[in-house]
């Protein structure tokens, strides 16, 4: 069913869908943690040196999350990141 809706694995359409799904997922993780800590978007933005609107877009999955930004935001939220790289 997913293939019918968003294309075959490896197709540009499927790759775009996967990227948007990951952006949404990571936005949810960041928002949930921020709220659990009782931090506003504005406070988080000040801690990491960005605009509140950027935090809002990230939490909604509306913008591409750069690794450097993810590291700074995760650190501000007390999230430990682990990056696994597997060569195929």
UniProtKB/TrEMBL annotation:
<dbReference type="GO" id="GO:0003677">
    <property type="term" value="F:DNA binding"/>
</dbReference>
<dbReference type="InterPro" id="IPR010982">
    <property type="entry name" value="Lambda_DNA-bd_dom_sf"/>
</dbReference>
<dbReference type="InterPro" id="IPR001387">
    <property type="entry name" value="Cro/C1-type_HTH"/>
</dbReference>
<feature type="domain" description="HTH cro/C1-type">
    <location>
        <begin position="30"/>
        <end position="88"/>
    </location>
</feature>
<dbReference type="Pfam" id="PF01381">
    <property type="entry name" value="HTH_3"/>
</dbReference>
<keyword id="KW-0238">DNA-binding</keyword>
<protein>
    <submittedName>
        <fullName>Helix-turn-helix domain-containing protein</fullName>
    </submittedName>
</protein>
<dbReference type="GO" id="GO:0003700">
    <property type="term" value="F:DNA-binding transcription factor activity"/>
</dbReference>
<dbReference type="InterPro" id="IPR050807">
    <property type="entry name" value="TransReg_Diox_bact_type"/>
</dbReference>
<dbReference type="GO" id="GO:0005829">
    <property type="term" value="C:cytosol"/>
</dbReference>
